[in-house]
Give the backbone structure.
Amino acid sequence: MITLYGCYRSRASRPLWLLGETGTPFTHVPVMQAYRLPDPDAAGAPLNTRSPAFLAVNPIGQIPAMVDGDLVLTESLAICLHIARVHGGTLGAQTLAEQAQFENWALFAATSVEPHALAILQASDPAVADAEAAKLARAFARLEAHLTGRDWLGDRFTVADLMVAECARYAQGHAALMAAHPALKGWLARCQARPAFQAMWVARLAEPA
């Protein structure tokens, strides 16, 4: 059985959403980021990314991490690709060519979307957010062109949509950027209307901020 380490307010949201989509049984071990705790090393501190028990799973101390039998994965998008491949049914790739496309979307999300989208989410200065939105515009234009006239990245909702949507979500609060990309905005709304996303989001909101 899969064991997933991490909290909902982290990149663990990605595999947690996917596990909800697939209905795959799993064990969830909540692990908080150490920086969110006043003293992560104190006796009685909750399991966190500096806890020896978690460092034994992922020595670099980042969440999420997944253990599936003898397999240990410590990158959220790799975890998603594995879950989709083994448990995903039509959420996963049906051909080798489609698997290559999913891997391409995963790398696109990680390198072209997430860095600037996350900077927008974390920006306290609107000028910084606008500068990051300008850097993100090229990747969003790529998505906008691809999504115009279609509901999903492929011929159905798949793990590719989930992975890219969770990276694009970080920029969702930038109103002008989203307004400039209506096909992307509509696609993101469709992704987030799915019951498994909604269940993940309720659990996320229930966690301490």
Q: What stands out?
A: The first strand starts at residue 2 and ends at 5.
